[in-house]
Design brief:
The protein has 119 residues and is α+β, with helices and mostly antiparallel strands. The protein is built from 5 helices and 3 strands; from the N terminus they run H-H-E-E-E-H-H-H. Keywords: Manganese, Metal-binding, Mitochondrion, Oxidoreductase.
Length: 119
């Protein structure tokens, strides 16, 4: 939630990694939004960490398949099943994806990222 820091952009090591690997925070958001909008049916769009390469990746998974099946540790996940957004956004998934960033918990993602890259 916003009152608990939701939507505040990342800082520190995660922000630097996003800038290095994607060019900007807006670029990773656009990539995740595009991936989520393009996903047919139900599934998830993720910002994941390849622990071996210490590299961030945007991936999608179908249905309830976890990101770990692609060898990545989830940092952020966006549920793009209709149940996640239908009551507020009807069938307009791109509007949901545009607005989910207002409550995204980057602080939690940063904690996981820093723990994994600096064990």
């Amino acid at each position: 939630p916003v009152k608990e820091g939701g939507g505040e952009p990342p800082k520190g090591a995660l922000a630097k990694a996003i800038d290095t690997q994607f060019g900007s925070l807006n670029a990773v958001i656009e990539k995740m939004n595009a991936g989520g909008a393009a996903l047919q049916g139900s599934g998830w769009v993720w910002l994941g960490l390849n622990k071996d390469l210490k590299s961030l990746m945007v991936e999608t998974t179908q249905n309830q398949d976890p990101l770990l099946t692609k060898g990545l540790l989830p940092l952020l996940g966006i549920d793009v099943w209709e149940h996640a957004y239908y009551l507020q956004y009807k069938n307009v998934r791109p509007d949901y994806l545009k607005n989910i960033w207002k409550v995204m918990n980057w602080k939690y993602a940063e904690e996981i990222f820093e723990k994994e890259i600096n064990p």
